Amino acid sequence: MDFLTKKIPDNELKLMYKDYDSLGFGMIYTDYMFTMKWTKEKGWEKGELKKYEPMSFDPASVVIQYSQEVFEGMKAYYSEDGRVLLFRPFDNAKRMYKSAERLCMTPVPEDVFVEAVKELVKIDKRWLPKEKGTSLYIRPTLMGTGVALGVHPSPEYNFCIFITAVGAYFSSGFNTVSLYVEDKLVRAVVGGVGDAKTGGNYAASLLAGLKAEKEGFSQVLWLDAKENKYIEEAGSMNIFFVYGNKLVTPKLTGSILPGITRDSVIKLAAHLGYEVEERNISIDEVVKGIKDKEITEMFGTGTAAVIAPVGGLCYKGETVYAGDNKVGKITEELYNKLVNIQYGEDEDIFGWVETVDTI
Ligand SMILES: *Cc1c(COP(=O)(O)O)cnc(C)c1O
After folding, report:
1. Ligand 1 pocket test: which of 169, 197, 205 has the largest number of ligand atoms within 8 Å of its C-beta?
2. In the Cβ-directed half-sphere of 152, how many Cα atoms lie within 13 Å?
3. Which amino acid residue places its CA nearest to atom 10 of ligand 1?
4. Ligand 1 neighbourhood includes 237 CB (under 6 angstroms)
5. In 230-304, at which residue ranges do the beta strands (DSSP E only) sit?
């Protein structure tokens, strides 16, 4: 690849021990990373694959002072026939491009993004766990590393990618989780940066997240910032409600992160013959739908968890459960179908899967 400064010779790469029983999420970091720098003078310089190490920036850099940062989350999967697979990597590249534009950052060209991810995965495939459900979680990150204390876009950017070997996102496995519906604090407002994958959204979410955890819930379910009425999304997942054979998910209003898993589930469900509606859905409609048993299943979607069955919602001190707090049939069907595509077991009917390498 001519966008890299150098190739890492195979004999420098050690085979890594993998303890499948204790993978968790974000616990095991691989030994290599990718970095690439942009400056006003030189544009994008060549990218570098190097040993994982801390990075140093000026304390006055724009990323540190004003949170000029965007990131992505994607996975590499091991298929039984020995291939290393990526899932819809160009969609991550496109989304990061858009997020960067929203934050006035120099975006990473989409083909460079995908090639850089592939080059790092080829090196880090030594860490790829092979058990189904496990994967390499890839975190491309773009930061404004230059100094502009007078609040302006950074004159310098750093694009880095690192990887962690992961197991299932929720320690409870494929079981239902319950969500805490936050009716005072808000995550994002239309016109803001809610639809950009930027760290600031997460910083803004921490307080509500801690409160939810303290109450025994795994994530927050956010409402719209204007009326505290319409459901937006969960902490790091988009949300779906199942009414019999119909799936309903909040439409993308501008304050919701456009999840690639969300989009995949919409397409997959339609292909399987389910009706799918993207529309505004109020918390009152959902609570009533659960109580009347019209809502039979609920689930969240996101790269980290893939599909997380949701059993209960706590709203204004009352917790209501859909489908007797059990994993629903449609939830499980969609999970299995999606995971089988991601792990290269089912036919890739949508053209979502890319082979990076073999093991
Ligand atoms: C990343 C993310 C999602 C899920 O997006 P995927 O592309 O499906 O991984 C949902 N909500 C938020 C806030 C996110 O940051």
Report:
1. 197
2. 7
3. 237
4. yes
5. 231-234, 238-243, 246-250, 275-279, 297-302
The total of other beta-carbon atoms located within 10 Å of residue 15's CB is 7
Cα of 238 vs centre of ligand 1, distance in Å, is 7
The finding on whether 302 has its CB within 6 A of some atom of ligand 1 is: yes
Domain boundaries, the chain: 10-166, 177-342
How much distance in Å is there from the Cα of 88 to the middle of ligand 1?
Answer: 14
16-68 pLDDT tens trace = 756 566 788 888 899 999 999 999 999 999 999 999 999 999 999 999 999 99
Residue 228: count other Cβ atoms within 10 Å of its Cβ. 15
Is the distance from CB of 314 to CB of 259 less than 8 angstroms? no
Q: Give the homologous superfamily in CATH for domain 177-342.
A: D-amino Acid Aminotransferase, subunit A, domain 2 (3.20.10.10)
* Of 287, 288, 165, 171, nearest in space to 218 by CA: 171
Half-sphere exposure of 109 (CA within 13 A, CB side): 12
Question: Would you say the pTM of this structure is higher than 0.90?
Answer: yes
Phi, psi values for residue 327, rounded to 5°: -65, 125
pLDDT digits (tens, 9 = 90+) for 148-170: 999 999 999 999 999 999 986 65
Q: Domain 10-166 belongs to what topology?
A: D-amino Acid Aminotransferase; Chain A, domain 1 (3.30.470)
Catalytic residue of the set 42, 197, 211, 229: 197
Work out which ligand 1 atom sits closest to the CA atom of 262: 8
Residue with structure tokens 């004159």? 155
7 flagged as catalytic:
no
Which letter, b or e, does each residue of 22-44 get, where b requires 16 or more Cβ atoms within 10 Å of its Cβ? ebebeebebebbbbbbbeeeeeb
Phi, psi of 283 (to 5 degrees): -65, -35
User: What residue owns the CA closest to ligand 1's atom 13?
Assistant: 236
- CA 5 to centroid of ligand 1, rounded, Å: 32
Question: Which atom of ligand 1 lies at the shortest distance from residue 194's CA?
Answer: 13
* Total Cβ atoms within 10 A of residue 265: 26
